[in-house]
Amino acid sequence: MSSRVLLLDIEGTVCPIAFVKEVLFPFFSGKVPSLVSSGEPAVEELLTQFPQDKQQCLQEYILELVDRDIKDPVLKQLQGHVWAQGYEQGEIKAPVYRDAIELIRRGGEVYIYSSGSVKAQKLLFGHVADPDSDRRLDLQPFIRGYFDINTSGKKTEAESYRRILKDMGREARDVLFISDNELELDAASEAGLNTLLAVRPGNAPISSNKGYEIVKDYSAL
Ligand SMILES: [Mg+2]
């Protein structure tokens, strides 16, 4: 591989898109009833930040926010709290692809760039399902750094990738960005990075063929 540094997207690239929609979101929704009656101080403090007129029907209100995919900052914090507990108690493990685990462990310089928060990214890579056992793997020691929308900006803007290069202290030509999203690859290549389009099971068909080189298996990298 000519690029010394890897910058990896998460959903649709190192783990199935379905993990978020079919595992993380239902896990949170299932915990909402016990959450609103938990009496846990950290949770109580968050709940009081929801609008005053919703305090009588918090459970319904929270589930409605989830259903409508509303980007509510309090909801995000609550979800982060619930998922952290789920990961720590072994109820959730991240289904990172076997060849992605191997790629990350191979010892190159690996960075992550995802729209999920850095905190959520660290939880995910700290609690990966071992494909060969029911144990969990901690991939965090193999990851040099994490970037999200707050640290670096939108994934579809070239400026975000320039910011990331600056933070890495790297030249664009040394970095390979892998993502399943062509708009993200457009932005990364505008910033001069090398790119590969991830085509993995469960991904939506590629919308347009912009000629990006495709990768289906990371063991060849
Ligand atoms: Mg993706």
Automatic annotation (TrEMBL):
SUPFAM superfamilies attached to this UniProt entry: HAD-like
Pathway: Amino-acid biosynthesis; L-methionine biosynthesis via salvage pathway; L-methionine from S-methyl-5-thio-alpha-D-ribose 1-phosphate: step 4/6; Amino-acid biosynthesis; L-methionine biosynthesis via salvage pathway; L-methionine from S-methyl-5-thio-alpha-D-ribose 1-phosphate: step 3/6
Gene3D superfamilies tied to this protein: 1.10.720.60, HAD superfamily/HAD-like
Residues forming coiled coils: none
Any one GO CC term of the record: cytoplasm
Entry keyword annotation includes Cell membrane: no
Chain positions recorded as Mg(2+) binding sites: 9, 11, 180
Binding site for substrate: 114-115, 155
Presence of the UniProt keyword Magnesium in the record: yes
Subcellular compartments: Cytoplasm; Nucleus
EC annotation from Swiss-Prot or TrEMBL: 3.1.3.77
Subunit structure: Monomer.
Protein role: Bifunctional enzyme that catalyzes the enolization of 2,3-diketo-5-methylthiopentyl-1-phosphate (DK-MTP-1-P) into the intermediate 2-hydroxy-3-keto-5-methylthiopentenyl-1-phosphate (HK-MTPenyl-1-P), which is then dephosphorylated to form the acireductone 1,2-dihydroxy-3-keto-5-methylthiopentene (DHK-MTPene).
Protein name: Enolase-phosphatase E1
Annotated source species: Torulaspora globosa
Lineage, broadest ranks: Eukaryota, Fungi, Dikarya, Ascomycota, Saccharomycotina
